[in-house]
Specification:
Blueprint: H1 2-39, H2 49-62, H3 64-81, H4 86-99, H5 101-120, H6 124-139, H7 145-159, H8 166-190, H9 192-208, H10 231-244, H11 260-263, H12 312-328, H13 332-340, H14 350-362, H15 372-385, H16 390-403, H17 410-425, H18 447-459, H19 465-471, H20 495-507
Helix pairs in contact: 1-3, 2-4, 3-4, 3-5, 3-6, 4-5, 4-6, 5-6, 6-8, 7-8, 7-9, 8-9, 8-10, 12-13, 12-14, 13-15, 14-16, 15-17, 17-18
Amino acid sequence: MNRRRAYEDDGDFYGERNKKRRRVSENQEMEERLETLILRVGENSTSSLESNLEGLVSVLESDLGNFRSKILRILSDCPIKMPEKCTIYSTMVGLMNAKNYNFGGEFVEYMVKTFKDSLKQCQWDAARYALRFLADLVNCHVISTNSLLQLLDSMVDAANEDNVPQVRRDWYVFAVLSTLPWVGRELYEKKEPALDNLLVRIEVFLNKRTKKHHNALRVWSVDAPHPQEEYLDCLWAQIRKLRQDNWTEKHIPRPYLAFDSVLCEALQHNIPVIHPPPHQDSFEYPMPWVVYRMFDYTDCPPGPILPGAHSIERFLIEEHLHSIIEMHRWERKDCAIHLLMLPYKEKIPLEYCIVEVIFAELFHMPTPRYLEICYGSILIELCKQQPSKMPQVLAQATEILFMRIDSMNTSCFDRFVNWFSYHLSNFQFRWSWDDWDSCLLLENEHPRPKFIQEVLLKCLRFSYHDRFKEMMPEGYAKLIPKPPAPHYKYSMEGAGKSTEKNTQCCTL
């Protein structure tokens, strides 16, 4: 009897444990499903983005009771890890805030904590994307304009601190300026005097700022045909142009406009007062750079026009392309596919923008962000993915670089040699060398013939000498490297005498 009762008790125990396992597995499956739905919103779908957002918000609202913390974490991570979908997630949060005010308040607190933690941990890109998302929540009536302006003012206050590195002050101003394209129109319509005051403070800062680093970071020693602007000066010129256009731009998707009637009735939250963490000697800040320019609208064929150097669209496109390279650099095929799938690609000469951004990364001073071969492999994959356009654009870019090589920085010259030789080795060393015949009239140490000589020397490592003798035009014979031969010192003239001396020394 006792045994049977013990057996029955054990059976209840194991049955209860199996139920718990099923509940855990069901919860994990549900969490993974929610995460997949949130991550993939806005991607290829047969239905419209608006209907997808409405359906997803309904699902999330019904699951808030069981997966509240999970939903908060995913929604705060997505706009930082996928900044190109910032407005999609802000619309989602806006719709949820309109239905559930308490959730909206919790999310704002969570996002503010993420922003402050990113600043403390020196995760500068994450902090900038978090600031951008907080600003975009103003457009969705989740956050009040007054509290956002208070936050932006505190960022500018940090830029005016004394006895701190200039790179710290520069980053805070850059973070504010790079956020304004998302929220500038809303601030202009509701708080124009406060916005003007913020811009005046930034202008005063920029006028006092030193730029001793500018010359050291230039790719070319001359500004013709494209000026080499320091990054903050260039962004400030783009923001001023945006201001002249009444803060209207044509690149940022804004899905929340379709839900304006719902969002405008929602209650708003205030961002608590945020004081940026004080500078510490262990903090490392992003270094300044010079904005790289290779093309303008005259270089592009008839069709979509390349945005001007001081248009905000140029900044937004370049920033988006840089973030794609950063995210997908480990897989060249995925990187090439995502670059060619840039939104609004029908409105811009996309191939020219991509090539310019990749060369900007390659020629970044003092060193590129990633290995040089990373950019070379991405360009090769782009040529394979789009053989009808990309090789022609890349050939045009190579021609432009070769024509301007006289004033190119020495480090960039070496990177140009490395990339071009690597690229030729992947396309059977085919190139229209006859177009560069004019360089044969110059001295061998002139940058143009020197470039060809260095390229052939590098290419020799990927092939053999006789091939270049047959492939290159006759006039280039003087630039072809000497045939490689073994250096056997014992067969050279006078080798026997040196051997006798060594033997005598050994005997002594």
